[in-house]
Amino acid sequence: MALLEVKNISKNFGSTSVLKDINFEVEKGEVLVLIGSSGSGKTTLLRCLNFLETPDTGRIILNGETLVDAGSGSKRESESGIRKKRLHFGMVFQSFNLFSQYNVLRNVTLAMDILSKESLKKPSPFRLGELREYRRKCAEIYAENEKKALALIERVGLIDKVKNYPCELSGGQCQRVAIARALALSPDILCFDEPTSALDPELTGEVLRVIKGLKSSDRTMIVVTHEMEFARGVADKVIFMADGVIEETGTPEEVFGNPKSPKTKAFLSKASEVV
Hints:
By secondary structure, this protein is of the alpha/beta class. It has helices at 42-49, 79-86, 104-119, 128-155, 171-184, 201-214, 228-234, 252-257, 262-274; strands spanning 4-13, 16-26, 31-35, 57-62, 65-69, 89-92, 189-193, 220-224, 237-242, 245-250. The strands form 2 sheets. A 6-stranded mixed sheet has the order 6-7-8-3-9-10, with helices on both faces. The chain has a 4-stranded antiparallel sheet with strand order 2-1-4-5, with helices on one face.
């Protein structure tokens, strides 16, 4: 059974059809790369997976559990339910989305600490013993979260920047912090939405090297990118999207080396001209 199954996903914005009957699967440990021109539906697809958009039709199944069934007619899910499902997916956005008021370490630990605190039973304010035990457990969990965060920050090559604030970092460094933050919650699938599009060319390489270094047999990733050489080198499977549909799917060798669709050929030809 595939880790992720996407079945018949469609999404409209008013009269504009952005996604049209999207179907694909992702195996555990696989890196799926989505390529295609701007406006082809790649980002909207990622946003549907991360519960930032709601598809109009179709199902999203993770580990055999149906997370989304747009055709079931069920009532709208609660925000807490959506947030719980969203934790299955880590999202790295184009524009970093770091908290400017927090340093690097706090940007990575914040979500972990909030979730950890929510998992604890709240003490009665009138029982000092319960309150002391609650505070002890919080301190213990926060220390573990900080230890995990420091290991992730070191992994993305920023251990010397833990006390720095986003305004003191380059764009590439901010994006690496965003990657560490996404990893901190141990998602089943890590998603990247054009992670280098907001970066100067000289900073792109450092972020791509970090992403490529994350590839392993047990880490599953979905990457939207316009960096074709990177896509070819990191992907296990490539999907080319055009006009809201999956135009072609295959291995990097098949899609880049011997594309079947005229639209794929045209896109790759233009991409090579830009390079």
